[in-house]
Hints:
Structural class: alpha+beta
Amino acid sequence: MDTLSPQTASPLLQRIPEPVRDTLSPEQAQALSQVTNPAGQHPVDLRLTLPLPGRKVFFSVVAGRERRSGERLAVERRQHPLHTAGNILFMLTSLAGFYALALFATLMIGSVVKF
């Protein structure tokens, strides 16, 4: 990788381990040096780990303006379908939790504030 010095390489290219970075062709290294990391550029970027009994679960919500091409969106829809058992179970559980929280808040306000 004699075409790019560590000073001119992008943060993404610098994160690649040196033994792997040394195997890249000059064209691959150049392409990776031009990639920007959009992870920190989203208006909404929530990432947390939920410590459940016996395991940890990673939860992430990233939102912002859509920048992917139509072709890439089509490929990703095929690779990651929305209607899966896990997604449906998550949505139902989330809705039930939100409903329970709203019901609890309504009951608390009704018992504290008299109209």
